[in-house]
Design goal:
Length: 130
């Protein structure tokens, strides 16, 4: 079976799923800088851990058994907030990397990348929701 996607064409081995193939591909990409685009964040309780891309798309979600027995709507809000936080962390990391590499601060500012203050504000707003 062959599958076309926006990143190219790859074949599926018999018994493999698209997710299996994507995961294997993403693991191989880690050596070429893909890992720098990922950020892992945890809930304050530590019950939920999310690894997401710099766009906030989750690639891994770990949820404790106790958390799975709680309110699912609240869990969904928590996961969404953690994805947003992971995207911010990744953006902050990129901002620091660009500045370290000598990119002009005005150019970096124009890119609209988040700052540590933006992350702190997000964390305050999440605390207010709870």
């Amino acid at each position: 079976m062959r599958h076309n996607n926006d990143t190219g064409v790859f074949g599926l081995k018999k018994g493999a799923t698209l997710t299996d193939q994507w995961w294997a591909r993403s693991q191989g990409d880690c050596s070429s800088g893909f890992a720098d685009a990922l950020a892992t964040v945890r809930s304050r309780s530590g019950a939920v851990t999310v690894t997401a891309t710099n766009q906030g798309l989750p690639v891994s979600i770990k949820i404790s058994d106790d958390e799975m027995r709680c309110d699912m709507a609240g869990l969904a809000r928590e996961i969404t907030a953690l994805c947003h936080s992971a995207a911010m962390v990744s953006g902050i990391r990129l901002r620091a990397q660009l500045l370290e590499e000598g990119v002009d601060a005005d150019v970096v500012g124009a890119m609209g990348l988040p700052t540590p203050d933006d992350l702190a504000e997000l964390e305050r707003s999440v605390d207010d929701i709870r």
